[in-house]
């Protein structure tokens, strides 16, 4: 959060202490949240983040256990250590939340994301796009004479890198799923 | 959470027998099975089936309010004075939206409530039907949890879960939204014991190692202080009793937040008075200078800490809370303990005794000497008057004239609230009901009715400001209708006093919109509703007038005309540390800016 421009002494006119005391070293964390798959549960999680001013960089959700009615929400968030600790505690007290795991600090995790890229172009640009897609092991899932749709999976950084390369080659549309993550080992 | 809170006795009949009944009947039956004797509510189209079921029974009393916000505050008063959850019933749309302030108030102050709202029939949800509102959406951030019940067969289980969630862990309000067709549908009723257990089971037992560390700290501390809050009250009277024992046995000083008053008796010798923005000088300085702070069931609210970076700089801090998210939220502590505060106190007391009941007596004696020095400042001193009633004087007299009675006090929000906390003394828990976290003007009057309904014979007084009190003035009819002999003690300064105080001290004495214009004739208003009205403006008449109020068998509206420009001290201006408290004598210098540098 950007610091507000508050004049010296001005906060003595407020009912609150307006200075920001929080440490600034923010870091990205991937949280896995296991929840009951019931109406409104995603709204609860998202509402917690917006209501308390936390960041969401990416969020995915899907049912993972149909019989047990469980879903897994993977949230990538940013914050200082204290904020991340608060986020975990706040998530944990939502009634339909069963478990919260910080995959960044508690485990070594694999993180994967799927993305679809639509690239429009002709001639050399088109050939270059196809060549780079091969290097990135992206699949062509749709093609016309002047466009491709590539499907790529990988860590978010890999997808970012691919996007950077495609942009000058005619990238016109992107769809990304957000991160799915699991701890390595057992 | 104590037994008392989860509390309601469960009926004796066999829970395994399944019965078929309508959704509306399930609601009433489940309430009975949870020991509910009173609900506060207001009817409307979307809850008519439930009102019909209520009509056809006599076990549950329905208190008809005049506005749904008041129903929720009444339920809060009921809950806080009994330790049992309060129950509310409102209709869809405006009924539910009117309840939002009360829900938020209960969430902030951790008060267990179960609120039922009507909803349009399931097949009409989402069509902008008449009196449709997205009630679960609107109340999601102001309830501990909420449910929209679409399956009649899930209704009984949901209600049982709702009582569990409201009363266990950190208590709070829950809401069940009930579409009208679900109320009409027939379904199977299962009793509380046969209900599907939810997974929600907050940790209540303290970690034994943490208890041991706490006891070691208690044994060694030189300048300790107990800082206690509403969590001790919520943990039940036994927790308050054991805390009192621990405090007396260790000889440590104790202060409390606004929410925790009464858990340790104000007549006890270790009592420092309330802490915080308008807390006592000795309490705040003890917090600032202590070397061991034991926080029991409080949450380092910004009204308590002042400037966070200067908060109690030299102390080892222990924080006991049933809600892990309260720990390390504002202040980083050295020993976090997630537990029911009652269980923690019991465990710590046992272990401390088993290890020989040791404390650092010599050091603590010195610490008390320092505290006695601070007490000599006499921080609540005010200039008396022969001709005008000072609000502090009015409360001193109210205290003196009600001492020894089992008295319940509610308040509105403002200066009068802070003076009440400073000048009234509470020797038992559950006797003091005030809106702490949300600071809701309009809370006190309906809360006092809720308390009175729960304790029909008790003396129940709402200490009010004339501005706050008008925010739920319509409840006069409710008090009359249900013979609730509540006493409304209005400290009438014809000002939005607390706002005026901030404007005087911090906004160059520009009194923007902070006076009460066109006030009613309170005595006539009282008479219009069949109450007794009393007006008093002379300090010499005050005692008689207060006695007249107390002795009257019925509701009383007491218009106590007080000094209009009195300020509430001590005061820690926001953003200042505890040791930069303003006393009455400093106010002029502060206004002229001298204290701002
Ligand atoms: C619903 C609501 N609106 C506004 C406020 C802000 N506020 C806090 S105290 C206060 C003035 C209260 O005046 P009164 O009830 O007469 O009490 P006094 O301070 O004069 O004792 C106001 C407006 C509030 N706390 N609650
Ligand atoms: Mg006033």
For the record, the CATH class of the largest domain in chain A is: Alpha Beta
Q: How many strands, which pairing sense, and closed or not: the largest β-sheet of chain A? A: 5 strands, antiparallel
CATH superfamily of the largest domain in chain A: ACT domain
How many alpha or pi helices of chain B?
A: 25
CATH superfamily of the largest domain in chain B: Thiamin diphosphate (ThDP)-binding fold, Pyr/PP domains
What would you say this structure looks like, in words?
The complex is a heterodimer of chains A (186) and B (597). Chain A has two domains: 27-102, ACT domain (Alpha-Beta Plaits, 2-Layer Sandwich); 110-183, Alpha-Beta Plaits (2-Layer Sandwich). Helix content of chain A is 25%, strand content 38%. Chain A contains four helices and nine strands; from the N terminus they run βαββαββαββαββ. In chain A, the strands form two sheets. In chain A, strands 5, 6, 7, 8 and 9 form a five-stranded antiparallel sheet that branches. A four-stranded antiparallel sheet of chain A has the order 2-3-1-4. Chain B has 597 residues and is α/β, with parallel strands linked by helices. Helices cover 38% and strands 16% of the residues of chain B. Chain B contains 25 helices and 20 strands. In chain B, the strands form four sheets. Chain B has a six-stranded parallel sheet, sandwiched between helices. In chain B, strand 6, helix 8 (155-167) and strand 7 form a beta-alpha-beta unit. The longest helix of chain B has 15 residues, at 68-82. At the A-B interface, helix 1 and helix 2 of A face strand 6 of B. The site of magnesium ion has 8 residues of chain B, from helix 20.
């Amino acid at each position: 959060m950007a610091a507000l421009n508050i004049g010296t002494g001005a906060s003595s006119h407020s009912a609150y202490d307006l200075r920001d005391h929080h440490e600034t070293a923010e870091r990205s964390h991937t949280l896995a949240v296991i929840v009951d798959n019931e109406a409104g549960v995603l709204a609860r999680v998202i509402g917690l983040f917006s209501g308390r001013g936390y960041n969401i960089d990416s969020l995915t959700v899907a049912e993972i256990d149909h019989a047990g009615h469980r879903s897994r929400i993977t949230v990538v968030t940013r914050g200082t250590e204290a904020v991340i600790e608060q986020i975990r505690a706040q998530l944990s007290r939502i009634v339909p939340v069963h478990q919260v795991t910080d995959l960044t600090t508690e485990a070594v995790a694999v993180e994967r994301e799927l993305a679809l890229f639509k690239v429009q172009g002709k001639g050399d640009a088109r050939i270059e796009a196809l060549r780079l897609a091969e290097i990135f092991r992206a699949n062509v899932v749709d093609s016309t004479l002047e466009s491709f749709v590539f499907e790529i999976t990988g860590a978010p950084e890999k997808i970012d890198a691919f996007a950077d390369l495609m942009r000058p080659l005619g990238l016109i549309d992107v769809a990304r799923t957000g991160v799915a993550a699991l701890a390595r080992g057992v | 959470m104590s037994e008392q809170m989860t509390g309601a006795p469960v009926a004796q009949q066999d829970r395994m027998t399944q019965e078929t009944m309508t959704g509306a009947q399930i609601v009433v039956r489940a309430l009975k099975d949870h020991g509910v004797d009173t609900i506060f509510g207001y009817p409307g189209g979307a809850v008519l089936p439930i009102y019909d079921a209520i009509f056809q029974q006599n076990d549950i009393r329905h208190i008809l309010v005049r506005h749904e916000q008041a129903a929720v505050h009444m339920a809060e008063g009921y809950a806080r004075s009994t330790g049992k959850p309060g129950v509310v019933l409102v209709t869809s749309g405006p009924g539910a939206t009117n309840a939002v302030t009360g829900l938020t108030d209960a969430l902030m102050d951790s008060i267990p409530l179960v609120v039922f709202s009507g909803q349009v029939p399931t097949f009409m949800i989402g069509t902008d039907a008449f009196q449709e509102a997205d009630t679960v959406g609107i109340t999601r951030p102001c309830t501990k949890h909420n449910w929209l019940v679409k399956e009649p067969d899930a209704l009984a289980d949901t209600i049982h879960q709702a009582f569990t969630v409201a009363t266990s862990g950190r208590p709070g309000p829950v809401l069940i939204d009930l579409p009208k067709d679900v109320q009409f549908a027939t379904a199977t009723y299962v009793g509380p014991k046969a209900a599907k257990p939810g997974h929600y089971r907050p940790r209540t037992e303290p970690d034994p190692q943490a208890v041991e560390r706490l006891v070691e700290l208690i044994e060694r501390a030189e300048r300790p202080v107990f800082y206690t809050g509403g969590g001790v009250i919520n943990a039940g009277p036994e927790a308050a009793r054991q805390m009192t024992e621990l405090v007396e046995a260790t000889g440590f000083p104790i202060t409390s937040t606004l929410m925790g008053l009464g858990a340790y008796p104000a007549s006890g010798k270790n009592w420092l008075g309330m802490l915080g923005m308008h807390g006592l000088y000795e309490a705040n300085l003890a917090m600032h200078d202590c070397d061991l702070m034991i926080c029991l069931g409080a949450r380092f609210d910004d009204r308590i800490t002042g400037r966070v970076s200067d908060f109690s700089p030299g102390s080892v801090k222990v924080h006991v809370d049933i809600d892990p998210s309260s720990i390390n939220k504002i202040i980083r502590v050295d020993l976090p303990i997630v537990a029911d505060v009652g269980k923690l106190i019991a465990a710590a007391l046992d272990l401390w005794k088993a290890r020989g009941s040791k404390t650092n007596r010599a050091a603590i004696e010195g610490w008390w000497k320092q505290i006695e020095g601070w007490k000599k400042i006499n921080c609540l001193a005010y200039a008396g008057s022969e001709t005008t009633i000072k609000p502090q004087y009015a409360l001193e007299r109210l205290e003196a004239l009600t001492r020894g009675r089992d008295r319940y006090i509610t308040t509105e929000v403002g200066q009068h609230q802070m003076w009440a906390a400073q000048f009234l003394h509470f020797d038992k828990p559950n006797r003091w009901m005030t809106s702490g976290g949300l600071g809701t003007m309009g809370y006190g009057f309906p809360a006092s009715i809720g308390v009175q309904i729960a304790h029909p014979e008790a003396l129940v007084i709402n200490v009010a400001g004339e501005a706050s009190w008008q925010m739920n003035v319509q409840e006069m009819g409710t008090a009359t209708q249900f013979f609730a002999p509540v006493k409304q003690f209005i400290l009438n300064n014809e000002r939005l006093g607390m706002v005026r105080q901030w404007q005087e001290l911090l906004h160059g004495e520009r009194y923007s919109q902070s006076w009460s214009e066109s006030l009613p004739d309170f005595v006539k208003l009282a008479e219009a509703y069949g109450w007794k009205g009393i007006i008093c403006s002379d300090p010499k008449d005050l005692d008689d007038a207060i006695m007249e109020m107390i002795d009257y068998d019925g509701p009383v509206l007491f218009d106590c005309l007080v000094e209009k420009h009195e300020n509430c001290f001590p005061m820690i201006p926001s953003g200042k540390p505890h040791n930069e408290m303003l006393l009455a004598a400093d106010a002029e210098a502060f206004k002229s800016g001298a204290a701002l540098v």
